[in-house]
Amino acid sequence: MHDRPAGPLRVAVFASGRGSNLQALLDAARSGRLPIEIVLVASDKAHAPALRRAEHAGITTLALDPHSYAQRADFDAELFARVAAAAPDLIVLAGYLRIIDPDALAPWQGRIINIHPSLLPKFPGLHTHQRALAAGEREHGASVHFVSAQLDGGPLIAQTAIVIDAADNAQTLAQRLLPQEHRLLIACVDLIARDRLVLDGEHVVLDGQPLRAPLRLGATGATLD
Ligand code: GRF
Q1: Which of 53, 99, 115 should be mutated for ligand 1, with most atoms under 8 A from CB?
Q2: How far is CA 76 from the centre of its chain?
Q3: Residues of the chain with pLDDT under 70
Q4: Which residues contact 91 (CB under 8 A, 6 or more apart)?
Q5: CATH fold group of domain 9-216
Q6: Where are the domains of the chain?
Q7: Catalytic residue among 47, 56, 67, 116, which?
Q8: Which end is more exposed in the chain, N or C (fewer Cβ atoms within 10 Å of the end residue's Cβ)?
């Protein structure tokens, strides 16, 4: 990421559904708070609301149907070739609900991040809110991490946490967490866009120092510490 030309970070976003995290990035970029340009929004679902949000913002979209490909690897080869043509510096998986073929992923190592609604390494995969409740957790949260071939298992960048109330159900947890997810994702993309945060091998490096633990979204909500 260090040798890219000056100017906003070119970002491609992958989303399968609602796209509220995409919207948070779009809004932050448009307001001038976040030095990025979203160059492409890609989806595996042609009817994803995220694509409509992108169109509304005048951003190029790409929808490919996995069912049109014989194998996952074929779908991902085509998807990543089309994405590469848009020359993003960073790919953000924001509610993208597909596992990515390791061969397609390999060239993007260190340039692809994911937001996941749990305090990883707890609860990788689906139904995280329900699983956190069923496990009797006191705290729940969201994580942003570099993507590796292991599902929700790549090096952690930052996390945000909320306390679970006795009255919480999966829906209230998801609702309370979502605004913090948005702030967390913006803060992480901001660090990358300002060339402050990179992946070096297996290590996340911030301002030249390897992180010993994931960053935490600060009490003011906007900063990482
Ligand atoms: C978020 O909870 C995100 O963490 C997870 O999927 C959800 C996507 O929400 N990966 P949205 O599509 O961004 O609104």
Answers
A1: 115
A2: 18
A3: 1-2, 219-222
A4: 11, 12, 13, 14, 83, 108, 111, 112, 113
A5: Rossmann fold (3.40.50)
A6: 9-216
A7: 116
A8: C
